[in-house]
Design a protein that fits this description.
With about 350 residues, this protein is of the alpha+beta class. The chain has two domains: about 1-65 and about 315-355, Hypothetical Oxidoreductase Yiak, Chain: A, domain 1 (Orthogonal Bundle); about 70-180 and about 235-300, Ribosomal Protein S8, Chain: A, domain 1. It is about 40% helix and about 15% strand. A seven-stranded mixed sheet has the order 2-3-4-12-5-7-8, with helices on both faces. Strands 6-11-9-10 form a four-stranded mixed sheet, with no helix packed on it. Strands 1-13 form a two-stranded antiparallel ribbon. It binds nicotinamide-adenine-dinucleotide. Nicotinamide-adenine-dinucleotide (NAD) binds next to strand 5, strand 7, strand 8 and helix 10. The site of nicotinamide-adenine-dinucleotide has 28 residues, from strand 5, strand 7, strand 8 and helix 10.
């Protein structure tokens, strides 16, 4: 099925209002989840709604927390999200980073104890829209999913890294990926009838490579998935290099921010993020930097493609998908739509009414 982004956002917003969030927070949850769907990252879109609802009901996530600036060093700040929604904490932290970088030339913002902050490229895009370069290291405390290079046992979460570079007169460069061979959400999507996984992204305890979501979730019964039930793991991307970058995400986003690392032992699940914001003008004339960047990107784009291939800039696939889905609507596999309908039903919300 397909649903228009506006209707889908309103449906998700109305679910979270009924679950106890303020209208502002519920609107942000809907807007940022649907924004991920629009860029093609369905793993970080509305498929997350049932999990957010359970976390809210279990008290893992707290509605309407006001993020607190726990330490303030001017160009440096530590933001404590107090286990509130990532859709409230991440824009707060990003806007603080933007304001402080505009004031000081650069800023470093540590965010801890945030609910799921979704697609990290969203925050790099927000900084780029304000004219700033940014980098973001992210981890997930208490979430063991990924085996380090050379191992079959989970030691990391999917720990994304993102970077944004604004290019005046052209679209920004937005690089944003999980340091695992696939984001966990892509395994979730595949397990619910979405795009199948490539053949070597999961690993069984005996070292066999796998593309079967059951490696992560255990036997696939119904639509509920518990990523702690499978015996295997997701593999780190890029062999020792991706595994090393993931380790740095644990240290920078988990240990340095005080948010907590993936393990050992049970920890309250939350996102930590260490972000750097840079004002180009602090480094040189804006026009010179932009001219050099544009000339380089033109040069990059003229690299001769492989047969049938295409040379794309980071951020380009998401922009293409956004214009396509903005026009045609967001496609959702029927099982995902069924979980959304089920989330609305106890509140008397009929998801199909939002499809008009
Ligand atoms: P991915 O493998 O789809 O890679 C996306 C990146 O690669 C983008 O920057 C994209 O522009 C670029 N790209 C894609 N195809 C390209 C091509 N052909 N040429 C050049 N560049 C190309 O992303 P992923 O690893 O599946 O991650 C998906 C999302 O999951 C990300 O948005 C990430 O932030 C998010 N995530 C979030 C969390 C969290 O805890 N909040 C955890 C893990 C992942």
């Amino acid at each position: 099925m397909r649903i228009d982004a506006v209707g889908l956002t309103a449906f998700v917003r109305d679910i979270f209002i009924r679950e106890g969030c303020s209208e502002g927070e519920a609107e942000r949850i809907g807007r940022f989840l649907v924004a991920a769907n629009l860029t093609g990252h369905d793993s970080h879109g509305v498929i997350r709604v049932p999990r957010y609802v359970s976390w809210l009901r279990e008290g893992e996530l707290v509605a309407d927390q006001t993020p607190e600036i726990a330490l303030d060093g001017g160009a440096f700040a530590l933001v404590d999200a107090k286990y509130g929604f990532g859709q409230t904490a991440a824009p707060f932290a990003t806007d603080l980073g933007i304001a402080r970088a505009k004031e000081h030339g650069v800023s470093v913002i540590a965010l801890r104890h945030a609910g799921h902050i979704g697609r990290i490229g969203e925050w790099a895009e927000r900084a780029a829209a304000a004219g700033l370069v940014s980098t973001h290291y992210v981890n997930v405390a208490g979430s063991l999913l990924v085996a380090p290079f050379g191992s079959v046992e989970r030691r990391f979460s999917t720990n994304p890294f993102a970077a944004g570079f604004p290019v005046p007169g052209a679209s920004p460069i937005i690089l944003d990926f999980a340091t695992s061979a696939v984001a966990e959400g892509k395994v979730l999507v595949a397990s619910q009838g979405g795009k199948p996984l490539p053949g070597d992204v999961l690993i069984e305890p005996d070292g066999r490579l796998s593309a079967d979501p059951a490696t992560l979730y255990g036997p696939l019964v119904g639509l509920d998935r518990d990523n702690q039930k499978g015996a295997g793991a997701i593999r780190a991307f890029g062999e020792h290099k991706g595994s090393g970058l993931s380790l740095m995400c644990e240290l920078l986003a988990g240990a340095l921010t005080g948010s907590g690392t993936a393990g050992p032992g049970p920890r309250r699940v939350c996102n930590g993020m260490l972000s750097l914001y840079l004002t180009p003008e602090a480094f040189g004339a804006r026009d010179d930097i932009a001219a050099e960047a544009r000339a380089y990107l033109d040069f990059f784009k003229t690299a001769r493609p492989t047969p049938g291939g295409e040379v794309l800039l980071p951020g380009e696939p998401e922009r293409r998908m956004r214009s396509l889905r903005g026009a045609e609507g967001v496609p959702l596999p029927e099982p995902v739509w069924a979980t959304l309908l089920a989330a609305g039903r106890p509140h008397g919300l009929d998801g199909n009414a939002y499809r008009a």
